[in-house]
Amino acid sequence: MPNNLHQIITNSSISPPPISNINGQDGQSDRQCHGVWYDALLVVPAVLFVVYLAVNAKKNVNKLRNGRSLVLISYFALLWLASGLNLAWCSLQAWQCASGKEIAWNLLSLITTSGFLCLELSLVGFLLQESYANGLEALARTFTISGIIVAVDMLLKAIFIFGFGVPLFFDVVGSTHQMKWGLWIIQKLLLTTVYGFILFVPFSKWREKLPHQHSTTM
Q1: Using an 8 Å Cβ cutoff, are 50 and 87 in contact?
Q2: Where do transmembrane segments lie in this chain (predicted)?
Q3: pLDDT at 178 over 80
Q4: What per-residue confidence (pLDDT) applies to 172?
């Protein structure tokens, strides 16, 4: 009996208390896993959209070849890239709860969100052109501006994720990380401001600068 009591005290004294890691690397039990049905609801629409793009790829490529618009060609390529990244992100949701996949999930989520941001910003840049520009100069200007914004966004997110351990892409059970939600709120407010400006443009003095319908729209 004394030996058993001594063993219990020894085991309890050397067992370290659980330490919560805000970066999602403290084990599977602290992460919120959404389950198979949630993953299916994400994967099915992503697969259907990629299939839709694949089915219409030949027709769209012919339109792009005949139209020779660098803007539409670039947008179509960005759409394929973002769709592929989105499909991978939706299909690999289990990485959130898999031990040792924290860095891979953060990188995949970071690249995927940056791909969509680049797609959105480039589309906004194309629409704000005075016409559907076909020149390399206008295209380079659009991608330079959107590329700088995306690069800054990626850099800041990477610093907060890998430097400060902010779980931007993890749902941790019982955790309300104020910095995480503060960063997301700030980003959404900035994007809302941009899109609000876009909605305001057709009713403002800048509406004449909006492009007309292009014959090669897909």
Answers
A1: yes
A2: 36-57, 69-95, 107-128, 148-169, 181-203
A3: no
A4: 63
Residue in 97, 180, 128 with CA at minimum distance from that of residue 105: 97
DSSP 67-110: H--HHHHHHHHHHHHHHHHHHHHHHTGGGGTSTT-HHHHHHHHH
pLDDT digits (tens, 9 = 90+) for 195-214: 677 667 666 665 555 544 44
Q: Which residue is it, tokens 């016409």?
A: 131
Pull the structure tokens for residue 207.
């509406």
In a domain, 79, yes or no: yes
Residue 23 lies in a domain: no
CA distances from residue 175 to 23, 30, 166, 172 in whole angstroms, order as listed: 11, 9, 11, 6
Structurally, the chain folds into a number of domains equal to 1
* Digit-coded pLDDT (tens) for 51-73: 999 999 988 888 888 877 777 88
Let me know if residue 1 belongs to a domain. Answer: no
Per-residue model confidence as pLDDT tens digits over 80-115? 999 999 999 999 988 888 888 889 999 999 999 999
Q: Which domain holds residue 58?
A: 32-209
User: What is the three-class DSSP state of 172?
Assistant: strand
Which residue, among 133, 124, 120, has the nearest Cα to 70 in the 3D structure?
A: 133
Q: Is there a domain that residue 54 lies in?
A: yes
- Match 């890998």 to its residue by tokens: 162
Q: Is 144 left (phi over 0), alpha (psi -120 to 50) or beta?
A: alpha
Cα separation, 218 vs 211, whole angstroms = 16
